[in-house]
Amino acid sequence: MGRIAYVNGRFVPHGQASVHIEDRGYQLGDGVYEVWAIFSGKLADAEGHFARLERSLSELRIAMPMSRRALTLVLREAVRRNRVTEGLAYLQVTRGVAKRDHAFPNPPVPPSVVITVNRTDRAAADARAAAGVGVVTTPENRWGRCDIKTVNLLPNALAKQKAREAGAVEAWFVDDLGFVTEGASSNAWIVDRDGRLRTRDTNANILRGVTRNTLLEVIRGEGLDVDERPFTPDDALAAREAFITGAGSLVLPVVSVDGKPIANGVPGPVAMRLRRLYIDRAKETAI
User: Fold this and answer.
1) What is the number of other CB atoms lying within 10 angstroms of the CB of residue 50?
2) Which of 42, 99, 149, 160 is catalytic?
3) 149 noted as active-site residue
4) What CATH code would you report for 4-120?
5) Could you tell me the pTM of the whole model?
């Protein structure tokens, strides 16, 4: 059985899935998206992802395409039809199809909804975490509303390509003051020289990471200290450990920045412990 996609009310073979050429997501990047990790066929961090989806849509003045309950049922059905137990569910909502015009269509048109599901090789992901990954740095060049999870990802795509060409997995954006804002598809963390966890606060034009928020709950439950303030690439190189978080990466140790090793160049105990704790929490609370 092949892959199945959901497009505007219908489940269709993945290879036949399509949207109209005047969909505003395609022509204007006028839309948002969310990604859920899937554990044992269930959606992880569901509440956080739905809340962020609703906020992103509200900020762009796009109507929620259906109730949260209905959307949950559709996502679950997409996972079931694709027979995915471990993977990622991708949801995209755009303002819809209308004659090309920068201003919003008047009267409004129905939002477009697309869902796809992909398998993840958890064993390979765990092996990558055990080895650690590299990141590269790149100047922050994105728009001023990175708190909205829009489909406008060209700077992120270019940053990811830079990382790939350097043999790294992620790119960290660095602002005009020399501080890391976040990764191209993740939040950035370090365990500094004093053993304190540090990550940028979400008032600094970064995405309000759902995995980040869940991990903060895990960290506080473990009685660990967290300092939500920025750090530089040099701070990362001088740190005991570093890692990234996201629905795709979960908690992934970082062992080098721009080709230079962090500490002894291997994943540290804090990052590996937090990865295990986060996965346990995600499995327990998945719906």
Assistant:
1) 21
2) 149
3) yes
4) 3.30.470.10
5) 0.95
